[in-house]
Each structure stands twice: as C-alpha cells, then as structure tokens.
Design brief:
The protein is of the alpha/beta class and 349 residues long. It has 2 domains: 171 residues, 3-Layer(aba) Sandwich (Rossmann fold), CATH 3.40.50; 162 residues, Dehydroquinate synthase-like, alpha domain, CATH 1.20.1090. A 7-stranded mixed β-sheet has the order 1-2-9-6-5-3-4, sandwiched between helices. Helix 3 crosses helix 4, helix 6 packs antiparallel against helix 7 and helix 6 crosses helix 8.
C-alpha cells in the first residue's frame, strides 16, 4: 500500500493499494462519526461494484443512499448536477454527511461540484475505478461540467477528504479504457520523470500499477502544491492539449480520451522540433511509448492542418497560446506564443 500526502488549501491523503475498500467505513467515521453517505456512480460502475461497496457500508451500520446516472460524457452537465443536488435535498443531507464518488472522471466531476456547492460544502470521498481517474482526478481539486457545446465551462477548485484508490477495481477495465489512463501516465512521465517514462514505454505495466499510480499522484501533487489554482507551473500538466483539443474538435469528439492525448503529445513534440522551439525531436520516443501501451498514434490530420486550425481558433479566442513544449523526456517548458507567431511558425512546417 502507498500513501501520498497532499498539502494544499486542504490536507488529505491519496491511499493506493489492492483490496483497500475495507478501509472505507473507518475513513467515513474519521470525517464525521454519524454521517450518512450519498453514493454517486454511473450505471456501468453501479452494476460492477455497487454490491460489494454497499455490503461493507451496511456491515458497519452506515446509512447509505444512491444517485445513479447514465454512463458517459453526456451526463457531465448542469441538468444531472442539479438532479444530484435535488436528491441530496430530498434525502435531507446536511453538511455533516458524506458524498462517496465511486467511478471515473465524470463521477468525480459531478460529486466534486455537488460537494462544493450543496449547503456551502459537503465532504467528498473519492474511490476511482479507472486508471484515468486514479492518476488524474484523484489530486488537483478541479471539478467541472460542460455547458452547451463548451467543455468544463462551469467548475470549482475543491479537494476531497480522502481518496481510496483500490487497484482491484482496475481488473474489470476493458483494455481500451485502461489505455486511456496510460495516456495520462505517459504525459506525466514526459513532463516530469524520465525514469517513469523508461518504465512505461515498454508496456506491460499492470504488475507494477500501484507504484506507477503513486508516482503519478506524487508528480501532480508537486505541481499543484506550487500552483494550486493553475496560474503558472501547473499548466505543464496540460502538455499535448493544444493539439489534442484540435484533434478532438476536428474529429467531432469521436476519438477516445487516450487517443486524443496520445496524438496531442506526439504532434506537440513534432511541432516543437519542426517549429524550432527546441532542437531535440522526441516524437518517435513518445509514439513508441504510446503504441506499446495500446494507444493509437495514427493521426488523420497533418501537423500543418492542426496548426492552422489552432491558429484560427486562437485568433477568435484569446489571441495567444501557452504552448507546452517538451525539451527532453522529463522536462517541459511553457512557451507563450501569439497567434501571429504561431502563424509564422507554420511556414517552417
């Protein structure tokens, strides 16, 4: 078992290990001795894991209600959030009670926003059931929902009381969903840890997944400790997003999260080299790591097409780009580029 301590505006622990869900009643009672629990989950996770979690809660006399929503990104919206808040009100939850988020990233967002807003704050315990939510949602404090066509437009910074990352949940993941999480692991290794990159680029990581998750949580913890509210250094965690979001939009959101992250990272490395930001071409190394972890690196769009799309998008938006450029494996810089500068760099592609 690994324990990562997070010391930001709220201190909490991320506990990582196999079959640690038995710790849940103890952690609930540490937060609030007589708390009721609202278990929030999507339908897929409910079918897979609800009974065993509920059995542990019932055995320890913890009163539990449930809020179950349709699985998928489409549920990450204000209507579902409002429905969850209504359920908390209907069941007479107070600020002394607990929201238990059991699931992936959408569940963490909905539960986190509900916890931050209901009665000015209800404690949230996170139990991630995907690799992606274990390494990404478990630390950072960001919760958001989509509004209309805009992703993550309404959100807050608010941290959980504790995170219990039981790696036994990962046994039920389809390979493509596990690969989505590995895209984030590779991202963290490129920006901050060459040793981790050398480990994961070979693939076949499941036997060491506890240590890998713990290291990713440590990396993200260190970034948010320095920059909790995402104003500076923490932006490096978005390495690959400039191109990844362009791929996402051009494909009409038809590609998986892992695919867009993988393509975003490889195209960012290629642009950094061909645009003469840094002299070393890391594209092949990043592509190899992605392929060995079952991630697609075949991009349907050329680098120039993506760059032109980004340039047009930024000209109509904020007019500049904080581009995360890989200098070496384990080291990235934030390079501020105006839309005009970005356009000029297109000539070198």
């Amino acid at each position: 078992m690994k324990v990562v301590k997070v010391n930001v505006s709220k201190r909490y622990e991320v506990i990582i290990g196999r079959n640690i869900m038995q710790m849940l009643p103890e952690k609930i009672k540490e937060i609030s001795a007589n708390a009721k629990v609202m278990l929030v989950s999507d339908m897929n996770v409910f079918r897979l894991h609800y009974k065993k979690v509920r059995k542990i809660l019932d055995k320890n006399g913890i009163e539990t209600e449930c809020y179950i929503f349709p699985a998928g990104e489409k549920s990450k919206n204000a209507e579902v959030l409002s429905d969850l808040l209504d359920r908390l009100k209907e069941k007479k939850f107070t600020s002394s009670d607990i929201i238990l988020a059991l699931g992936g990233g959408v569940t963490m967002d909905l539960a986190g926003l509900a916890g931050a807003s209901y009665k000015n704050g209800v404690g949230v315990i996170q139990m991630p059931t995907t690799l992606l939510s274990a390494v990404d949602s478990s630390v950072g404090g960001k919760s958001a929902v989509n509004l209309s066509e805009s992703k993550n437009l309404a959100g807050v910074f608010d941290h959980p009381e504790v995170v219990l990352c039981d790696t036994a949940f990962l046994d039920t993941l389809p390979e493509n969903v596990f690969a989505d999480g590995m895209a984030e692991v590779i991202r963290y290794s490129v920006i901050a840890d060459e040793t981790l990159f050398e480990k994961v680029k070979k693939g076949n990581v499941k036997d060491d997944i506890e240590n890998i998750i713990a290291r990713c949580v440590e990396i993200k913890r260190d970034f948010i400790t320095d920059d909790e509210f995402d104003k500076g250094r923490r932006q490096k965690l978005s390495f690959g997003n400039t191109f990844g979001r362009a791929v996402e939009k051009l494909s009409n959101f038809s590609l998986s999260h892992g695919t867009t992250v993988a393509l975003g990272m490889t195209k960012a490395a290629e642009f950094s080299y061909k645009g003469r930001i840094f002299p070393r071409d890391l594209t092949e190394q990043i592509e190899l790591a992605c392929r060995n972890n079952n991630l697609n690196t075949s991009c349907p769009y050329s680098l120039k097409d993506l760059a032109e799309y980004i340039c047009k998008d930024k000209q109509s938006d904020v007019g500049s780009i904080n581009f995360i450029a890989p200098k070496n494996i384990g080291l990235c810089d934030i390079v501020k580029l105006s839309a005009d500068k970005f356009s000029d760099m297109l000539e070198n592609l």
